[in-house]
Amino acid sequence: MLAPLPAPSPRAFYLQHTDLGILATGTILTLAALSEENSERATTTLESMGPLDVPIDIGDSFGSTWTMLGVTAGLGAVGWLGGGPRFSNAAIDMGKTLLVTGAIVGGLKVTINRTRPNNAGHSFPSGHTAVAFAGASVLDEHFGWKVGVPAYGLATFTGLGRMEDNKHYLSDVIAGATIGLLVGRAIPSRYRDNLSAFGGPDRIGVSVRF
User: Fold this and answer.
1) Short-list 196, 208, 202, CA closest to 88
2) Which residue segment(s) compose the domain that 172 sits in?
3) Is residue 37 part of a domain?
4) pLDDT 10s per residue in the chain (210 long)?
5) Does any domain span residue 4?
6) CA 159/CA 168 separation, integer angstroms
7) How many domains in the chain?
8) DSSP assignment of 74-97
9) Could you tell me if residue 1 is inside a domain?
10) Are 154 and 62 in contact (CB under 8 A)?
11) Between β-strands 203-208 and 195-200, what pairing exists: parallel, antiparallel or unpaired?
């Protein structure tokens, strides 16, 4: 006789239903944006908002894969130098999140191959926005709202910057944000309670609890 499956933890229940809400909301907003797509109007509106120029430019850089790889390396270095397992675990999760996000976004870009507002290819979804929101989710998971809120703010400016540069439609950005949020929340949470990395000048390892 098979033993009954253990009941899901309150945390797992919360994550599952929250993520379903994110997926449903992101899908609805993406479809709504598709029906009202106007890249020229979006670009003109954003360019007229002078005070947003600097944060949008910073957001553009934040959403770069190279920036996120730098953040990953920085977190790993701090953990290695004695910052504790929080930084080492964050680096591991960030690396895995970037790989999964890149694979999903790359597959969708090639499959859909939507023309960008500037007539280039592979518009849907926005890779910069996906990476930015994925990274922000990992930072929020490991370091709390004091780091997460500014990171999510930068991720939002990443999406705005991609539209201002006429490289993406609003629907591309919303879809990218949805993918980034889902992947960035799922990977750290999956092993949070039983996987821990540690390191220092004289030792390095991974602790797994079953």
Assistant:
1) 196
2) 59-204
3) no
4) 455 544 545 555 555 678 889 999 999 999 999 887 877 777 787 777 777 778 888 888 899 999 999 999 999 999 999 888 889 999 999 999 999 999 999 999 999 999 999 899 999 999 999 999 999 999 999 999 999 999 999 999 999 999 988 899 999 999 999 999 999 998 876 544 444 444 444 544 444 443
5) no
6) 8
7) 1
8) HHHHHIIIII-HHHHHHHHHHHHH
9) no
10) yes
11) antiparallel
